[in-house]
Amino acid sequence: MEHTRDNQQKKITASKVERDELYLYSLKKMADNNINSNESPLTGLYGIKAFFYQSNELMKKNPDKRFAVIRMDIYHFKTVNEFCGRQEGDKLLKYISELFQRYIGEYAVAGHLRADIFTLCTKFEDEQQLIDISKDIKKEIDSYEISCKIIPAFGICTNAGNLDISLMCDYADLALNRIKGKVFRVYEFYDTDMREKMLFEKKIENDILPALKNDCIKTYIQPKVDMRTGRIVGGEALVRWQREDGSMVYPDEFIPVIEKNGYVLDVDDYMWDKVCYHIKQLEKEGKTPVPISINVSRMHVYQEDFIDRIKKITSKYDINPKLIPLEITESAFTSEESSLYRKIKSLQDCGYRFSMDDFGSGYSSLGMLKDEHVDEVKIDKTFVDDIATDKGRILLKNVIQMIRALGIDMIAEGVETKEQADFLVNNGCIYAQGYYYYRPMPIEDFVLLLEKSGKE
């Protein structure tokens, strides 16, 4: 009886193995049949599904060999279609596909994944081989006769740990984006630093909204002072991120990430609300608040509802618009000027003040000052640091004189020494913020500082 059950179990197990093998065979057959249908109609190279499938199969069948992905993209390819015509653009893509086809072989698969993105999965012996392939393809593209400038870039990822082809393509794309549009850089290899950066940015994306919800995003204020008396005349709201374990994520780490994914809008809204709330609390307690400037990211400025969002937060707490000066970086003023100026003028008419942050840090347009689009200029720290040199002193002195002559308010950023403060005051700039006076502090401490200074 026991023997019979064993035989039955073996038969059941055998039939299950046969069914699994048949199922896997069917899947493979379907994949094989679909490969030919997943080709670019323009270039004849594999599309993304077929390329992924064929590349993974290639690497599985040759575990003893080293493989890499070379991913190529053309900087601003859309301009080729716009200036040269779609027909010329298609001819260029066909030409590039022919270049990639030269490398197809027993151990290499090429794909045209979309638009101007081409990939090659190939066996290699050393990295120089991959560099040579990239340079050779670029050389041939450079020789192609077309009226538009073609700038290809190559991202390369070597398979160092049985990576899936889709992940290799993602990593190659990370490397490519580091140099895309840089004329003098042809290729870039993916490395562990890129991976760490990608994982860190992904963690920022995942954690930022919960951080807002759990009150881990903190509002800090750096006081602004009258350098002649030391009296606090205002403050600037600065964002800080304190994780629940007490560790800090610094602004230069997370601000660039949330600007890319759009979460900076949520953080700005949160900061604006906190600042207005504390200003209102001071008024309710019968105390006189000082203006606390709030930073407005470039992305916020370009939102259609920017004006309404600012007005809504001010109305919510019923505070004077002059108590929340709006700081916008100099770089934002030099792009999309007409749209930005219309919004600034509209808000200025409602009583809001605008401050140009980091003046002098980039390629500023002095013309923007003569048109009275800003109420205040914040002189960048680099000017203040340079008073150690003769040229630096001359430059800062004349910048101050120019701003005063235009009738625009000013404040110096990053004042850290008595020598800097004295030079600024002696040359006509009387307001400043910097470590010489106060470091950024939690907004609650700033409120206490105001109360203390008011009693003195």
Give the SSE layout.
Elements: H1 2-37, H2 48-61, E1 67-74, H3 78-84, H4 86-101, E2 108-114, E3 117-123, H5 127-142, E4 152-158, H6 165-179, E5 187-189, H7 192-213, E6 217-226, E7 232-242, E8 248-249, H8 251-261, H9 264-284, E9 292-295, H10 298-301, H11 306-317, E10 326-329, H12 330-333, H13 337-348, E11 354-359, H14 367-370, E12 376-379, H15 381-385, H16 390-405, E13 409-413, H17 418-426, E14 431-433, E15 441-442, H18 443-455
Parallel strand pairs: 4-5, 7-9, 9-10, 10-11, 11-12, 12-13, 13-14
Antiparallel strand pairs: 1-3, 1-4, 2-3, 6-7, 6-14, 6-15, 7-8
Helix pairs in contact: 1-2, 3-4, 7-8, 9-11
3D shape: elongated
Instruction: Give the amount of beta strand, in percent.
Output: 15-25%
**Rg measurement, Å:** 30 Å
Query: So how many helices?
Result: 18
Write down how many β-strands occur, each being a DSSP E stretch of 2 or more residues.
15
**Major β-sheet, in short?**
8 strands, mixed, barrel
State the low-pLDDT regions, or none.
23-27
- SSE class: alpha/beta
Largest sheet, spatial ordering of strands? 6-7-9-10-11-12-13-14
Average of per-residue pLDDT values: 86
The termini sit apart by: 100 Å
User: What is the helix content?
Assistant: 40-55%
